[in-house]
Amino acid sequence: MEKALISARNIKKYFNVGEDILKAVDGISFDIYPGETLGLVGESGCGKSTAGRTIIRLYEPTDGELIFNGKNIYGLSRKEMREIRKDFQMIFQDPYASLNPRMTVEDIVAEPLDIHKTYKNDVDRRNRVIELLELVGLNEEHALRFPHEFSGGQRQRIGIARALALNPKFIVCDEPISALDVSIQAQVVNLLKDLQDKLGLTYLFIAHDLSMVRYISDRVGVMYLGHMMELAPSEELYDNPLHPYTKALLSAIPIPDPDVQRNRKRIKMEGDVPSPINPKPGCRFVERCSIGKDICRKETPVFRQIKENHFVACHFVQ
Amino acid sequence: MDKILDVRNLQISFKTFFGEVEAVRNISFSVGKSETVAIVGESGCGKSVTANSIMRLLPMPPAFYKGGEIIFNGENLLEKTEKEMEKIRGNQISMVFQDPMTSLNPTMKIGNQIVEGLKKHKNLSSKEAKEIAVEMLNLVAVPQPQKRINQYPHEFSGGMRQRVMIALAMACNPQLLIADEPTTALDVTVQAEILDLMKNIQNKFNMSIILITHDLGVVADMSDRVIVMYAGQILEEGTTDEIFKDPKHPYTQRLLASVPRLDMKKGEPLYSIEGTPPDLYIPPKGCPFYDRCDKAMKICKECMPEITWHSKTHYSRTWLNHPMAHGRGEN
User: Fold this and answer.
1) What does the CA dihedral B290, B292, B296, B300 come to, rounded to 10 degrees?
2) B27: in domain
3) Edge to edge, what strands does the sheet with B75-76 contain?
4) Residue, of B95 and B2, whose pLDDT is higher
5) Average pLDDT of the residues in B34-50
6) How far is the CA of A190 from the CAs of A129, A135, A179, A183, in angstroms?
């Protein structure tokens, strides 16, 4: 098998909230292979965005290892980290909040170049900016404008151009399309796919829109309250979900086809997502699970491989 | 079917510093008794303006009604005084908004917010109104309603808040519920519960619903009929089956093709509509979808297409179905 580009091992991120501890991400492990897209889904508050940020060390991790190209990046000094940051980039959810309204598009896209001083002179810098803008479907004219002059979809393209500036290997896309309209979502997703083919990028694609995640990802991980519940190739996960949470989640998504939708049965879940502050031991999903038993309250199920490439954390999946 | 609401040639504009924005441009539709009509479209297409205009909730100025009528139970709502509207709002027509956190009053107990409307519209005593409030919370499956009516909105989760919103809207037993993106801010699992709840309540009270959403999955799940809006106009209208199985307007066709489906095969391409909707400061003379349409013809730029009826319930506005287009409208 191919060697993983990124290996996350038992990553934890806790936040102190007063005297309590909020366990946003509580020991997740996975590999991401070069050129693939790993999708990460879950309901709000499940820790998927925190996981994305902790992986590229925007948040200092509480525990765990992240092996990138054979190096544990959590052990690196500030200076070494800065060097390796060139390889990781991020695309944010809200294209209105993630672009500085007082900077021109040229300066926004060139900011990573400025920080790492990758150009010789201004002409060089400008040429690189234009090259990047063209790569994402914008053009030279747009370089001297300000963010407010663009629509949501175009802004997200600017964010993507900025992320590509340093030729990264790995990009964390944190809900890159959820603020956009349906017809524009498809534009941005198709752009991300084209860029992946052209530049050999590897993505971690975080979203709550499961149909879109299925479309773009090679493999998908399902998170619930800081734990990874299931991880499998996207076809396998959607055709043959094993974890009770994944099953319930998938059955809740409305399908845009009246015949299919009328005949679907939804698996109901009891109650709301519990608080991640001082969580009880055992399986995180037990309170809402249809097959939960005593053992689930006592022991946290091990995240283990059931079939080839199909991982599940549940006591009752054989 | 009895019509409960009939919107005719409605035109709404906003006066702004840069000129007039024509947000809703001559639309007509009707809603039957205990029917669910979905209005779909992208942001800025005028669907929320339409919804708010029925309730007369648009800030005036800058908004103004340029023309048309909104007939509710035989009376034109646009001719009502503010006093008369107050008797209709929350009583005969109610609304559920997208964001339950900003639409509930954070400084008032949930119970009092429900009681407020009941006392105003139904002349009930505080005690009677409170009993109904508990009953309503029970109906929308909020656990421990006796205790919950004394809590504030921040003590509720997002899904629970939306249930409270629905209880509040349902309290006076309205004939028409306008739900403006009622589940957009919620997780899919919560969304499914809220939609089920709305269906149950509708069956119980024979209420009509106008559902405004951009999520085609929600439309397929909930609605009887669908109205497709684009740039302030209705481009297509039909029953849910007609719209999903046999869309006639290129915009509807492309919109349906640009949504990835959970039951889609791997490797099927996702269609993307290039470009963005037109600027409504200077609305286009012809079809508003002209710039983004891959089937556009010369005439589309010049004149707004007329209505073509495909069945008693299904029409579209596109020149492609005109006899002179020689069947170019077929897929």
Assistant:
1) 0
2) yes
3) B19-32, B3-16, B63-72, B75-76
4) B95
5) 89
6) 21, 13, 16, 11
List pLDDT tens digits, range A145-160: 999 888 888 899 999 9
CB A171 within 8 A of CB A22: no
Q: What is the C-alpha separation between B208 and B32, in angstroms, rounded?
A: 7
Amino acid B156: pLDDT: 82
Question: Which residue in B159, B220, B221 is closest to A272 by CB distance?
Answer: B159
For the stretch A180-222, pLDDT in tens is 888 788 888 989 999 999 999 999 999 888 888 988 999 999 9
Rounded CA Rg of chain A: 21
* Interacting residues of A94 by C-beta distance below 8 A, sequence separation 6+: A179
**B38 within 8 A of B98, measured Cβ to Cβ:** no
**Is position B313 within any domain?**
no
Q: How far is CA B12 from CA B22, B25, B280, in A?
A: 6, 7, 12
Rounded (to 5) percent helix, strand, coil in chain B: 35, 25, 40
Q: Is B191 on the interface with A (CB under 8 A)?
A: yes
| B244 to A44: CB separation less than 8 angstroms, yes or no | no
Mean pLDDT of A35-50: 89
Helix (H, G, I), strand (E, B) or coil at B3: strand
In 3D space, the residue among A142, A165, A144 whose CA is nearest the CA of residue A153 turns out to be: A142
- Alpha-carbon distance B283 to nearest alpha carbon in chain A (angstroms): 18
Mutate to test the interface with A, among B148, B259, B268 (most CBs of A within 10 A): B259
In chain B, residues with a C-beta closer than 8 Å to the C-beta of A267 are none
- CA-based torsion, A183, A184, A189, A191: positive or negative: positive
Strands (E) located in chain B: 3-16, 19-32, 36-40, 63-72, 75-76, 93-96, 176-180, 208-213, 225-230, 233-239, 307-309, 315-317
Q: Which residues of A touch B238 (CB under 8 A)?
A: none
The residue among B93, B315, B319, B289 whose CA lies nearest residue B225 is B315
Question: Residue B147: which CATH number?
Answer: 3.40.50.300
Quick one: DSSP state of residue A267?
Answer: P
Average pLDDT over residues B139-148: 83
Number of domains in chain B: 1
> What single string gives the DSSP state of each residue in A63-122?
EEEEEETTEEGGG--HHHHHHHHTTEEEE-S-TTTSS-TTS-HHHHHHHHHHHHT--SSH
| Parent domain of B204 | 3-261+270-303
Between CA A43 and CA A249 the distance in angstroms is: 9
Domain presence at residue B247? yes
The larger pLDDT score, comparing residue B183 to residue A74, is at A74
Instruction: Report the complex ipTM.
Output: 0.78
% pLDDT > 90, chain A: 43
In a domain, B320, yes or no: no
**Distance between alpha carbon A38 and the CA centroid of its chain, in Å?**
8
Q: What is the DSSP letter of A264?
A: -
Residue B101's nearest CA partner among B170, B165, B168, B151 is B165
How many helices (DSSP H) and strands (DSSP E) are in chain A?
A: 11, 12
Percent share of chain B, pLDDT over 70: 97
Question: Which residues, listed in sequence order, are joined to residue B11 by a DSSP beta bridge?
Answer: B25, B67
A5 neighbors A32 (Cβ within 8 angstroms) = yes
